[in-house]
What we know:
The structure holds two protein chains of two kinds.
Chain A: E1 9-13, E2 18-23, E3 31-38, E4 45-50, E5 55-56, E6 61-64, E7 70-75, E8 84-92, E9 106-111
Parallel strand pairs in A: 1-9
Antiparallel strand pairs in A: 2-7, 3-4, 3-8, 5-6, 6-7, 8-9
Chain B: E1 4-7, E2 10-13, E3 19-25, E4 32-38, E5 45-51, E6 57-58, E7 67-73, E8 76-81, E9 90-97, E10 104-105, E11 109-113
Parallel strand pairs in B: 2-11
Antiparallel strand pairs in B: 1-3, 3-8, 4-5, 4-9, 5-6, 7-8, 9-10, 9-11
Amino acid sequence: DAKTTQPPSMDCAEGRAANLPCNHSTISGNEYVYWYRQIHSQGPQYIIHGLKNNETNEMASLIITEDRKSSTLILPHATLRDTAVYYCIVRLMNTGFQKLVFGTGTRLLVSP
Amino acid sequence: GAVVSQHPSRVICKSGTSVKIECRSLDFQATTMFWYRQFPKQSLMLMATSNEGSKATYEQGVEKDKFLINHASLTLSTLTVTSAHPEDSSFYICSASSSYNEQFFGPGTRLTVL
């Protein structure tokens, strides 16, 4: 599995956009970038994933650089409930049996 | 998204006893289930992968005789912590997936061994 690097923590003001970076310089051509988040004392929650195009859903947007060596998760209008640890993971898609390898993630604190 | 449940959400037990944790996929058939462990302020660590009807595959360093995993049906997997000790106190999380979808995580079970 390709390794990812994320900043350990970030702060964001409520209502502002939160931009969470992730480096995955060893990603292979058939690996996708996945984002999960874990709110304190809960199981991880799937947010979004992408291969090379930018993706958007009701929760967030994912921007992947052209060389695919890094990506940014964007929460457009952060709320206090977005305070969580965010994990960037690279994995093969369409392989439900493939294990996920969690790094240390980014602890996002959204403040009033 | 699909729903995965865990039971119990919290359990406290005495040292030396065994504890069983259930993981259920409520609205889909899970051909594969995963068990993770998370210590305070640390990331999730995969313990084992189980496929329905076959033996679980354990990660290096995880004792298979201590952490018994059964995946007898497409909607249920169980993790039994045998002869629990205080160092087994942790947050145990399962996830489930079918062949071609994402992993969906349960809410976790907090185990405290006294």
